[in-house]
């Protein structure tokens, strides 16, 4: 039995050689369009590949049921924006904590947290970029300005890190990076509004 979002598919498991073939064919035929697969359950257990094309190595002989769960792209985007609000708060708090640690001369822990902050910020900006490309933003100029502002700040921060001027880095994080992050509340609110308009339009 193959089920997609609670509806039984017309396909039969026995018509396929392996799980990958089944998933590719079913998802093509069901015309999922603007939907994203969130879960695949095989014999009522969650399945995710440990290595690329693992599903190709799983024969269908022992498979009794396959359930595919999907979510609409706009719904997924809305969920991502809500997560980005949380990430923005984490970045805000992290920046202040790093600045404080550097001022206390706790350089080792501060540098560890600083690296985490850089990674999180890169991921944050990449995800905002994906949303911007997928959903035309009403105020794209403001968004571009905010992205450019963070990018320029990053360049300045990198130079300071190379010079190992931890006090200047503290000042940059607290007095420039944190205020720049505060402006992202408005950006994320705008993205949330645009996605909601797409969902209702």
TrEMBL record:
Stored InterPro entries: DUF8042, DUF8043
Recorded superkingdom: Bacteria
Residue stretches making up the DUF8043 domain: 1-71
Domain DUF8042: 74-189
Name of the protein this chain belongs to: Uncharacterized protein
Organism: Desulfocurvibacter africanus PCS
């Amino acid at each position: 039995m193959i089920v997609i979002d609670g509806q039984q598919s017309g396909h039969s498991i026995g018509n396929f050689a392996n799980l990958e073939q089944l998933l590719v064919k079913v998802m093509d035929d069901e015309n999922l369009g603007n939907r994203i697969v969130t879960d695949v359950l095989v014999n009522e257990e969650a399945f995710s590949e440990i290595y690329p094309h693992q599903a190709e190595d799983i024969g269908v002989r022992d498979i009794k049921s396959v359930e595919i769960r999907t979510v609409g792209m706009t719904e997924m985007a809305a969920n991502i924006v809500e997560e980005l609000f949380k990430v923005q708060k984490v970045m805000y708090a992290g920046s202040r904590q790093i600045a404080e640690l550097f001022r206390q001369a706790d350089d080792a822990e501060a540098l560890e947290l600083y690296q985490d902050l850089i990674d999180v910020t890169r991921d944050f900006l990449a995800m905002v970029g994906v949303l911007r490309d997928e959903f035309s933003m009403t105020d794209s100029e403001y968004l571009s300005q905010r992205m450019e502002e963070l990018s320029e700040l990053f360049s300045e921060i990198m130079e300071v890190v190379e010079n190992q001027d931890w006090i200047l880095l503290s000042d940059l994080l607290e007095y420039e990076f944190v205020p720049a992050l505060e402006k992202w509340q408005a950006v994320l609110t705008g993205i949330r509004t645009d996605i909601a308009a797409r969902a209702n339009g």
